[in-house]
Structures are given as structure tokens and as C-alpha cells.
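My hope is that you will study the protein record below before we discuss the fold together.
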Amino acid sequence: MSEQKFDVIVIGGGPAGYVAAIRAGQLGLKAACIDAFEGKDGKQALGGTCLNVGCIPSKALLDSSRQFENVTSHFDAHGISTKDAKIDVKTMVGRKDKIVKQFTGGIGMLFKSNKVTSFFGTGKLLAGNKVEVTGKDGSTQTLEAVNVILATGSVPVELPFAKFDGKLIVDNAGALDFDKTPKRLGVIGAGVIGLELGSVWRRLGAEVTVIEAMPDFLAAADQDIAKVAAREFKKQGLDIHLGAKVSKAEAKKTTVEVTYEDKNGEQKLTVDKLLVAVGRRAYTEGLLGDGTGVKTDERGRIEVDEHCWTGVDGVWAIGDCVRGPMLAHKGSEEGVMVAELIAGKAGHVDYDTIPWVIYTEPEVAWAGKTEQQCKDEGIPYKTGNFPFSAIGRAVAMNDTAGQVKVIAHAETDRLLGVHMVGPCVSELIAEAVVAMEFKGSAEDLARIVHAHPTLSEAVHEAALSVDKRAIHKAN
């Protein structure tokens, strides 16, 4: 069989890979994308972890569970009476599946409109920028490219003493497909996945215990914001244990017995389901053939420069399989950057302003440096903050937990970081990112007119607070 030739072959159809393929197609390059992710119907499901078992389905369940909690716990404050409200978990999960299928199919349509050739199977990079594709039936074919983009993503980290069985001990995919609400849910890891999926099932009635080995809650976030978030999660009923290290998880017939150690010694916890969410690792096994020249680091990540070039002519790598935060939007922007560089255009990603979001309630979001990072790096800084409890729109929404914190350079006033916990901060953080991208200052945010009444006024007031000029709080 003669080899098919392409300008660009992308291995991986997640948010990094499929975006790279589409952008390459837009730029007039002959592009192909190889992906092996399989939907529940056994057909190819483009979109990777993010779309199939990550970002999108988790947000669908978060929204369904939030609606249920509003009905059962919050509508009475608005004078809305409800009685004996129930939720059908199977219907909720079915809705999630429909949303996933809608979007995976949408990517396929975008491929067609941008003349991207899709291959259903696994890809392996060979020497000379050739790619071997192994189909679902085991058949192989070899493709040839001028450029190859490696975008194989990541997989959940599995603990040796808590192996996934898909029934009692699960990863994020398993926790998205429970057929009923577990009475007791254990979560190992108080990161984004653990907190979001723990929140989903807590709202539906599960007793949720989160076990985190780190002594600090949300160590990557600004600690002023993390403290507010921890307090709110505790109020909601999430039982979070910090500085607790799990040593054993034994699956019984219908339960899991977890053994962990904290400051009080050895502890036992019995749960009906156990979600292991201790992080993800780059998925690069079997990706590189002999003689490719592509290197990986001690964590299995593909080594690249600031423009995602591997050092091998025509070979690039993007997304979760390279350095940097494992975030869908980071991978997508790298995909755009690399496609544009291949086409001879300028390509760039500013890694200092990538926003982070946790879609709990309250939501948590940030961009830029934390206060602790400024201290560690010896950067002179000043801060301002403002609570949502003093924002008219938040009070009207009965959603007042949280605050906005702005960090600016003490001498130049340039924005160094903006951190938020509260309602809709996943959307509000974009304003901060735009300001930081344009090298804006706290003064710039403070001078911009914000509509009233809106949640965005908290950003405005926090910026004013940097120079002790906030109008609606004591400075």
C-alpha cells in the first residue's frame, strides 16, 4: 500500500491535537489527525479526555447537581416552594452523554469543513517523520508527513495500592458514570478533579470524604483565596483531611476500606465508592519508534522548547504530554501556535497569563503570580481585595461567598496576578487575563467603567483597593 503524504499529521485528537489539525487546515495545509478514543457506541469519539471524560461531561454533571441543590436547599430564600424533589441519576448521566456526543460529532464536522483527514487508531512516530497507524482491528498503515505534531495527552495516575477496577475504585471517567448516588464517597486528592466530582455527588446526597496528602489546601492557588474556598467547602459538607497519606485501599464485595495516616495516627475509612484523583501523567507509551531523536524526561513528558519544538526537524509536541499545566486551553493555544509556525506565521503562547479555574461553588479562578510567589522571587508588590458580600448583584443572587484579590508591582503598578473565589469567577477571570496580556496596571482596571450592578464590580473595587481607594469598603 502506497504511503499517504501530508503537510501535517497530528497524533491525538484532544483539545490540543484537534485544534492544531483544524488550524492547519484553515491555513491551507494538508492535515491528518489520528485518534483512538472510543465512545460508548464503539465509534471514534474525537475530543480526547477533555470532551469525553473530563471538562465537558464534568461541567454537565456539575450543572445538573447545582440545579438539584438549588431546588432542595436554596429556592426557599426566593419564596419558591418545592416538595419531595428527586433526581434520576440515570437521566442526569444520559444528558451528559448526549452533550458529549453532540460535541464529538461537531469536531468531525469541523474536520470535514477544513479538509482534515481523520484516522481511527493509534499513532506511532517513526524515523523520518513517518507515522504508523494501527487500526482497531490491528491492521497497520504508514503515513508520511513534512511535520508531525505529538498531542497524546495524559492519563490518570494510578496508585499501586488502589488499582482502578471501574466499579468500586474509579478514576474520573468512572466517577462520571455512577448509576446511582453512593451513600459514602471517598476521594483521594483535593485537586480540581477531586473537588469538582466530590461536589457533584455531595449535592446529590453522598457523604464525601476527601483525603489530601499535602498539608496546604489548593497549594497552587493564592492562599488567601484557598482559605476562603476551604471554609465554604467545609460549610457545604465536604469533609477534607489535609496532611493525610493513604497507604491502603482494599475493595470488599460492595465497599472499599481505606487506610490512611494523619497527625493523629492511622485512620480507617469505609466508603461505597472510591475516586482516585491524585493527578495525571503524560501518555507517551508506545508513541516513539526507534531513531526518531525525540527525547522524554523522567516523567515521560516529551522535551520541547518554548515554541513546542522537539529539536527534531518537523516534529512538535503540545498539550498534556509536554511541560506546563495540564489544561485544555493551554493545549489548544499551543496547537494554534504550532500550526501557525509550520505555516510560516508568528506563533506565541504567554504561559504567564494562562487562567486556572475550578468549577466548584464557589468557583475558584486565577491568573499570574500568587502572593507567595512574589515573596519567594523577591518582587515588591502590593495587594487589594474586595468581597462579593458587598456587591449588589451577588446579594441579589443570594451568592455572596468569596472575594477578588489583585496583586500589582509595588513600583510600576503592573498587574502580577489576579485571584478570585466566588460566583461566576470562571468568566470574570478573562478580564484580568486581557489586562495582563496588554501589560496593564491595577490603575488601568480601576479606571475602566464597570456596569452596575454586576459581579465584575468586585474586580473594579479590588483594583481600587490596591491603592486603598475602594469605594464600597473601608480601606
Q: What stands out?
A: The longest strand covers residues 116-126. Residues 89-113 form the longest helix (25 residues).
